[in-house]
Amino acid sequence: MNYTTPINYEIVKQKRDESELENLGTSTIREIVRLVNRIEEATGEKFVRMEMGVPGLNPPQIGTQAEIDALNRGVASKYPMIEGITELKHETKRFVKLFLDIDVEEENCVPSVGSMQGGMAMLLVANRTDRNRKGTLFIDPGFPVQKQQCRVLGQDYGSFDVYNYRGEKLRAKLEEEFKNGNYSTVLYSNPNNPSWICFTDTELKIIAETADKYDVIVVEDLAYFGMDFRTDYSTPGKAPFQPTVAKYTDNYIFLISSSKAFSYAGQRVATLVMSPKLYNRRYPDLKRYYSTDKFGYSMIYGALYSLSSGVTHSAQFGLAAMLKAANDGNFNFLNDVKIYADRAYKMKKLMLENGFKIVYDKDEDKPLADGFYFTFSYPGLSGAQLLEELIYYGISAISLEITGSEHIEGLRACVSQTKEIQFAALEERLNAFNKDHAEGKIISNRVKKNKEAKG
Ligand SMILES: Cc1ncc(COP(=O)(O)O)c(C=O)c1O
Predict the structure, then answer these.
(1) Which residue owns the Cα nearest ligand 1 atom 3?
(2) Could you read off the pLDDT of 59-79 as tens digits, one per residue?
(3) Each residue of 199-243: pLDDT tens digit?
(4) Cis, peptide link before residue 284, omega less than 30° from 0
(5) Which end of the chain has fewer surrounding CB within 10 Å, N or C?
(6) pTM of the entire structure?
(7) What is the best residue among 257, 311, 402 to mutate for testing ligand 1's pocket, by most ligand atoms within 8 Å of CB?
(8) CB within 6 Å of ligand 1 — which residues?
(9) How is 30-70 classified by DSSP, letter by letter?
(10) Which residue has a Cα nearest atom 7 of ligand 1?
């Protein structure tokens, strides 16, 4: 059977077959990237690419210039200190105070090769503090690679979809998860990748209280720092501040990525911040792996030392310069990335006008923020099936199935790579999709129709 679709049906089908991916619903982000690259190459048509969470903006000149200056000073020939250059530690401490309103010491702030490495180091230390506990509880949906990190380390993990446990309901669910004494850590991102839900202060307080009760370390992944644009968190030292669990517990780790909020993904530099109490805490079981029982020392001179012996020297200067400018009130980093919210608003509107639904749509009783990601579905189709169909219409995304979401009918869209000039094409393609699918026509025929797919 041949169909007329916005992207040549035969070529898409041929590339799809050649990819040998069994099911796009369980394929990784990078596998989808590869498939779409090949279709674009073969057809000469540009996709509306919503699969990968890469920044769609230029890096701030402040960071680039500071790196050039550092390289010209010759830092490339010198090993950076594992605990980080003084400038970066100093500016991170200030950033945490000025944008989260939390007090930490410079020694608690260490650089990592992206938050990916920060997460890995965290697992290597925090999940080894108690020989009787098995690993991390992920509050899902979440970033799939973090579970892969657990798997490659041979660590166990658990997870649950928070969709049905918002507000006060979260307390009983966390109690149920923690009370078996299995977990050393609990991890979530806020704002959340993939759903863009943002925990309320009530929820953060519940996470803190239940974690404290069962002595679980809270790992707050701030990869999208301040990017809940319903509230302006951009003025240093002035409320409102980015909400954080650290207001309610002194047993936390922050992973602060520079990739999205500072459009600095390519330089692979982030900071990991341990609460002062956790940094100094002694866990006798750490001695199984490290020369000391001290948490902070094990993190720096045990885990980070063995992973990469520090972070690229110039990248640390770049990040330090951007943080300093933000701290001094000379660089409104959130203003630069606010454009993602406008895009999300417009793209969601186009989807809703063409028969699609938004899956995660509320924070307790408040409509969800517009930001870097949103989630969507099409009535009657499973996520896997929707992905298979959408590629014939020049639209790519990833399935929520790989994020620990129970809403397997949904897909995640990332808005960063879709420019305003592509909106007309997006509208046309969504329109064509809706016309073809409103009556249940399926053109890819790869995945069985999911009867349980919710509308
Ligand atoms: C929730 C979350 N955590 C961590 C990361 C990784 O950040 P980095 O680029 O700093 O390694 C990402 C990147 O997409 C993310 O979405």
Answers:
(1) 223
(2) 999 999 999 999 999 999 999
(3) 999 999 999 999 999 999 999 999 999 999 999 999 999 999 999
(4) no
(5) N
(6) 0.94
(7) 257
(8) 53, 114-116, 143, 189, 193, 221, 223, 257, 259, 265, 270
(9) HHHHHHHHHHHHHH-PPPEE-SS----SPPPHHHHHHHHHH
(10) 115
